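Aim 2 progress update. The chain analyzed this quarter is reproduced below.
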Amino acid sequence: MASDSHMHAGHDHDHAGHDHSGHSHAGHSHDHGHSHTPEVESGNKNRVLLAAAFTTLFMVVEALGGIFSGSLALLADAGHMLTDAVALSFAYIAYRASERPGTRHMTYGFDRMKILVAYTNGLAILAIALWIVVEAVHRVLSPQPVLGGSMMVIAVVGLIVNIGCFAILHGGDRESLNMRGALLHVMGDLLGSVGAILAAGIILLTGWTLADPILSVVVSVILIRSAWSLLKESGVILMEGAPSETDRDAIEADLSAHVGEAADIHHMHVWSLDDRQKMATLHARMKEGTGPDALTMAIKKRLRDFHGINHATIQVEESPLCLDGREQDGHAHEHAA
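Predicted structure tokens:
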């Protein structure tokens, strides 16, 4: 977690929905307005908990059915549902943790727990998909008997359960990476059930048991693509990268062009605390005749109204010479984010 570059000893910030904009300390201003939506987060939390309960119950049934029928598709989906039950539980815990206010040590609060869980879910999905591919190769090289009838019954029941879980989560906030991670797990189960049904149908009609591992691989490829997207987005946030829709250089140029009180804007950094709250730090040199408060408020207003950044830490400077040195601001380097 990157902290503001100008922290004051003994000055603790509570981020539980409070806005401390407008206070300044020796040229530093910290705006802590957060766009929390408690109703939406509470709804997400309850949906994830309900989906976790359904997933856990059916996971046991599907695992027993996979062992009885000898179906890799069912066993793979049961294994996926086991990790889903754990992942959904972690997603629920993350929502609960994000409700906690900041502390002396966790001054930004626990909102990023949701992103950490989303990233972990992406890794888990990727690992499961790769395991299914490896196991499918073994099944192709050494075909095993599969009871198509039992496989079909369990897969159909699984599809119904997964559609129910997907409907529960789909009604939540799909802009939340934590919710998207949970949805991705359930979508993987849903696709697994569809693949198992198709494989069971082919086996019942033709006796071709290779349909089971082949369709398992197809589902795995879809999961790998989705997991990579989730890993990429959550990874950028964990690495303090700028949000994908945010251009740091463009924001800096916009402030220089539209904030008349500023003679120069530099050392600007933009990142996201979670998938909602954008953050920024920057240095701003005053024009002659301009006070630090006027400059600070003008920058904050521009960031909030035009760029959706409600948390900004601003260092106001009077001297043309930046005390931190211009060569440190990163403008000479390309920013992948």
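Residues 1-27, 30-36, 327-337 have pLDDT under 50 and may be disordered. The CA atoms of residues 303 and 309 lie 5 Å apart. These observations will guide the mutagenesis experiments scheduled for the next reporting period.
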